[in-house]
Input
Amino acid sequence: MDAQGRGRADNVDPADQWVLNPDTGEYELQLTPSAPQSAVPGPRRAASRRAGGTASGQRPAAPGRQQTREAAPSETVPVPRRRRAAPPEEPPGRRGRRPEKKSKTKKVLMWTGGTMALALVGVGTAGYLVLKQLEGNVTTTDVGGAAKNGFSKDEAFNILIIGTDKRTGKGNEGYGDKGSVGHADTNVLLHVSKDRTNATALSIPRDLIVDVPDCPTKQPDGSTKVVPGTADARFNTSLGQDGRDAGCTMRTVKEITGVQPDHFMMADFNAVKTLTTAVGGVDVCLKHAVKDKDSHLDLPAGESTVEGEEALAFVRTRHAWGNAGDLDRIKVQQQFLSSLMRKMASGDTLTDPTKLYKLANAATRALTVDKGIGKGTTLMEVAQELQKVPPKNITFLTVPVRDNPADGVVHKTVIVDPVTAPPVFDAIANDVSFTAVKKKKKAEKSAEAARLKGTQSEASEVRVRVFNGGAAGGAAQETVSWLQTSVGVLKSENAANAPESIAKTTLEYAPDQAPQARKLAALMGLSGAALKPGESFTNSQGMPTMTLTLGKDFKGAGVPLTPPTKAPEVDGKSTADKVECAS
Output
């Protein structure tokens, strides 16, 4: 049932029925009439019952926000007792309340959808009650193996946030493409670090030219249909086109970046309108006045507060910013999201139970997620992990791109920049922060340091055979040639293809070959994780030889495989704590 249809009395919004439990110090949603709290009588309001009145025509008292009230009529059905909040003038910490410290943790990081599509709910204990109450609002989609079955609180995680251009919902007939099946209009890959000190929100342009891979999709009858891939297609066609679901978009992101999204969250135009209205508007800043005939946005230079239709117009406006392209609009959307996050985390929102309820209601109605995070308890776990990340360490980036040379004179699409994009993808894949953060101290040295520590052999003493276990064709011979001509490992040989493919490159060696292994790892830039103590192979000359197997992660002879320790500098990056003006 719609939340507004439950417990309604004399225009009392259910959001007003949140009360503070003095025993726990937390807000609780109470939608049933209560027994008296005190001998002191208080005002009573008439209330309507969902099933009509009582047999005598009288109606039970409705829950409200008064501290005390008289008992309901005797013919009222008995209900559980509930505790009331202290009066507004009551100082914090009185009457058994816990200190305010706990309520401060109820952070709301509500990143909202539609075309700017960032709808993540991060609330504290009060949010848990809301999510359980409104769990039925969330729509789930089975994307099969594209998403994980569950959520782990102990690992870094990646959530793909998608905003569609589908014209669903009242008042959205004039937005997006008429008749659109719902393409991936705005897309953000959110990476949250394992230690929760930082997060990266990577925007992916809708007009990025990509190869959309073959995609298995679940059908209504339970069967699986494989949608054929498309070469040189716009990224936004990875959703909706030919029946593609969000799992297809997730697979396309993996194809582009090498980063595997664990889950997805999707929203439409209504998310922007409902969420910004729920928080009482979002503050935006403009370097110049805007009067856009296409989006109907009309704002003066300087600071303004937008909500509802005006907020949607702000994030959809393209021609008013920069070069009137999608890349400039993405930057403005990132600024908007940062402002929205600051509003959600403000004391004005966190301490207002009415806003908390409205936010949770609006957010859950706006979301479609994969089954792995579709339960209220799982969403709460995601929220708890998100709220650990400080806004100053949440970085907004856009995939580095170049104009598509195939467009000719008029540039309509872009391609991934082959030089500047890979380091960005590698940093995200290896959980490297784009902001300066203090890493947690480790009690022991890393396995890599331990394995690479010690005496190294000379290059001329290293014996190794090289297998291709999933790298590009010819990689084994290329590596042998590089070892012999560039770094002096003359006792190396091509062993052709490995018996099976592997994801990560490995170097297997016998215990007495450890110095050789350390030397080869140093020369090739192999991480400690690549070193695999085991057995040696006896070559045709009867000499013990190490085995190097090039995995799918191998990037080429002479290219280090050691994970990056520092993120690259990226043009246009910003953080969630900074106020910026759209231009």
In short: Residues 168 and 268 are 7 Å apart (CA to CA). The two ends are 44 Å apart (CA to CA).
